[in-house]
């Protein structure tokens, strides 16, 4: 369960299970497991795992029995393309067991996600111009790749948009019938629809961004009526309305950087608070979280401030599903930093709590039961 939401009041004395992915060499700690007290924010590192190169993005099924990781590489065993590994998780000790490996049929896989019904696993290949889908068995084991959705074209930035660059694959809020792929190289969100037979996916449409935006990640509002795309190259966030299944309608675009900032920076992650009141974006270079309040009447975004993440290159961050905490992962300073979220302002408040982790670039969180 990745950055999910829960209903009901906060229950104390719970424990969050964190799995952290990184840009690590095979002989380094690549995946780290952490337990965090839901009430105090105190955390302890429980395990580290090597043997996988650049496990830069993670996902987990709802019952926590399988952890999925991409290996963001250009080749695997001398063959072009990366791989995906699905690790069974021992239920008693919460330890990773030997995984099932699958080729991603594209280079530099950088994102993966399960559909809400846990029937499909989608992987975006940044340097492979394609999204690969795997059918999942009831035990979470991925079958062989069944669908490959290929992109073609380029954008105006010759260094970053010389080719398609799918940067995420996000299933829609209506049960996984639609798949949304922000393509950084094409300045579009590509939209796909599952066929009636359940085994085929076809193009359904696109949602254009401005030339040179470089869309990276996408997050839906909890009510399923809006979506937010973070644009890596233009340092902006674009709000889309979602008037009907499979259709995104562009509404507005705002800068994620403070007025007057002149340094180099790029956007990375976007997340919506579980209560649907705030949107958060990470800036790499400015090294901050940008906060936007959602107007309850109009849905418009209103800039609500910036908070330093207290580390360099916050490629990823996550919110605990109860909306209490924000955890920022810093690729260049090898640390996680904990913030408590103010319920009224939405601002992340630094808690003086940090954890050393090797080149962290993804934080997955679920309730430990």
TrEMBL record:
Superkingdom to which the source organism belongs: Bacteria
InterPro entries to which the protein is assigned, alphabetical: Cycloisomerase_2 (IPR050282), Haem_d1_sf (IPR011048), Lactonase_7-beta_prop (IPR019405), WD40/YVTN_repeat-like_dom_sf (IPR015943)
Pfam families from the UniProt entry: Lactonase
Example GO molecular function: 6-phosphogluconolactonase activity
Similarity-based family: Belongs to the cycloisomerase 2 family.
Protein name: Lactonase family protein
Species this protein is from: Cohnella pontilimi
């Amino acid at each position: 369960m990745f950055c999910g939401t829960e209903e009901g009041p906060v229950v104390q004395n719970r424990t969050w299970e964190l799995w952290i992915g990184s840009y690590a060499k095979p002989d380094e700690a690549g995946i780290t497991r952490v337990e965090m007290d839901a009430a105090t924010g105190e955390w302890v590192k429980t395990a580290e795992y090597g043997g996988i190169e650049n496990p830069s993005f993670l996902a987990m099924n709802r019952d926590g029995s399988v952890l999925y990781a991409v290996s963001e590489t250009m080749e695997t065993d001398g063959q072009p393309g990366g791989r995906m590994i699905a690790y069974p998780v021992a239920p008693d000790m919460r330890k990773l067991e030997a995984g099932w490996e699958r080729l991603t049929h594209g280079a530099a896989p950088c994102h993966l996600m399960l559909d809400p019904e846990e029937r499909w696993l989608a992987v975006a290949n940044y340097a492979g111009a394609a999204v690969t889908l795997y059918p999942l068995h009831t035990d979470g084991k991925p079958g062989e790749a069944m669908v490959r959705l290929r992109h073609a074209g380029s954008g105006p930035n010759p260094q970053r948009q010389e080719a398609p660059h799918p940067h995420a694959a996000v299933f829609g809020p209506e049960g996984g019938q639609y798949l949304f792929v922000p393509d950084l190289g094409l300045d579009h969100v590509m939209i796909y629809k599952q066929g009636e037979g359940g085994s085929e996916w076809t193009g359904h449409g696109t949602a254009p961004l401005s030339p040179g935006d470089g869309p990276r990640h996408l997050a839906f509002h909890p009510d399923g009526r809006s979506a937010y795309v973070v644009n890596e190259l233009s340092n902006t966030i674009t709000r889309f309305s979602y008037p009907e299944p499979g259709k995104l309608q562009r509404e507005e675009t705002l800068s994620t950087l403070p007025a007057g900032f002149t340094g180099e920076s790029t956007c990375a992650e976007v997340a919506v608070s579980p209560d649907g009141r705030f949107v958060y974006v990470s800036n790499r270079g400015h090294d901050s979280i940008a906060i936007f309040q959602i107007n309850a009447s109009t849905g418009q975004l209103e800039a609500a401030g910036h908070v330093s993440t207290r580390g360099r290159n916050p490629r990823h961050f996550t919110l605990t599903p109860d909306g209490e905490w924000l955890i920022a992962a810093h690729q260049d300073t090898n640390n996680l930093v904990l913030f408590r979220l103010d319920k009224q302002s939405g601002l992340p408040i630094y808690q003086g709590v940090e954890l050393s982790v090797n080149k962290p670039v993804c934080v997955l969180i679920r309730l430990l039961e």
